[in-house]
């Protein structure tokens, strides 16, 4: 299956070698140097992964990420940033990025992060057509099809958000630690900030609340998170 990658980078010293490296890995790669062009391309057709620089000449990369997610893009987004502040990284995760790398970065590490993200976000064929889905109420997590339902409405989530919910739902009512979420949803060798876990959980919590799901993701201070049934659900 062909993997399509969009590189959003305005530095012509970084983008061409990055594109060549990705193409040598067998990916189909497109390159745009402006944020508005990236937003348009993301909305126009299938993409599996976006490598997104924050410092773009027209609009900020964070805005590109936000618009992509608001437009329904569910593929992977890795932020590439030269900004040193942790705040930019946290905001990037808050608006829907799955991962980030600080410049300068090694191409080997970028490829490893990309492969890990693509593995987790790979779509799985549903075992039955949509019309055959059981008409049960409440929250349903279809692991095989990687889809989430509240009553008869599907909830759009990113690959990371889905994996987080699967872990929480497997042990509903029990606490899942940040360390376990980091290891199983991101990478067992992940050494970055656990704030990306909090960001993904926060986005997922809001989406479930907006959909009227009869559950709540509770924060257990200093430990992790617990998926709870809402009283009266």
UniProtKB/TrEMBL annotation:
Domain of life according to the entry: Bacteria
Molecular function via GO: phosphorelay response regulator activity; transcription cis-regulatory region binding
A GO cellular component entry from the record: cytosol
InterPro entries found in the cross-reference section: CheY-like_superfamily, OmpR/PhoB-type_DNA-bd, Sig_transdc_resp-reg_C-effctor, Sig_transdc_resp-reg_receiver, WalR-like, WH-like_DNA-bd_sf
All residue ranges annotated as the Response regulatory domain in the record: 4-118
DNA-binding region(s), chain positions: 131-229
PROSITE patterns reported in the protein's UniProt record: OMPR_PHOB, RESPONSE_REGULATORY
Modified sites of kind 4-aspartylphosphate: 53
GO annotation terms (biological process): regulation of DNA-templated transcription
Keywords assigned: DNA-binding, Phosphoprotein, Two-component regulatory system
SUPFAM superfamilies: C-terminal effector domain of the bipartite response regulators (SSF46894), CheY-like (SSF52172)
Residue ranges of every copy of the OmpR/PhoB-type domain listed in the record: 131-229
Protein name as it appears in the record: DNA-binding response regulator
């Amino acid at each position: 299956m062909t993997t399509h990658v969009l590189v959003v980078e305005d530095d012509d010293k970084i983008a061409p070698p990055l594109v060549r490296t990705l193409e040598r890995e067998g990916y189909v790669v497109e390159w745009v140097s402006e944020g508005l062009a990236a937003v348009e391309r993301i909305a126009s057709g299938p993409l599996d992964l976006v490598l997104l620089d924050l410092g773009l000449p027209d609009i900020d990369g964070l805005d590109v990420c936000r618009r992509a997610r608001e437009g329904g893009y569910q593929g992977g987004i890795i932020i590439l940033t030269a900004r040193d502040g942790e705040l930019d990284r946290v905001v990037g995760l808050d608006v829907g990025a799955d991962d980030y790398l600080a410049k300068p970065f090694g191409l080997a590490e970028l490829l490893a992060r990309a492969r890990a993200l693509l593995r987790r976000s790979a779509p799985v064929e549903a075992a039955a057509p949509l019309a055959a889905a059981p008409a049960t109420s409440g929250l349903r997590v279809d692991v095989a099809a990687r889809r989430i339902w509240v009553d008869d409405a599907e909830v759009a989530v990113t690959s990371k958000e889905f994996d987080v919910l699967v872990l929480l739902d497997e042990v509903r009512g029990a606490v899942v630690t940040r360390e376990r979420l980091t290891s199983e949803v991101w990478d067992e060798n992940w050494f970055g900030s656990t704030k990306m876990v909090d960001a993904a959980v926060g986005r997922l919590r809001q989406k479930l609340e907006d959909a009227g799901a009869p559950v709540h993701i509770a924060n257990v201070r200093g430990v992790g998170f617990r998926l709870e049934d809402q009283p009266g659900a």
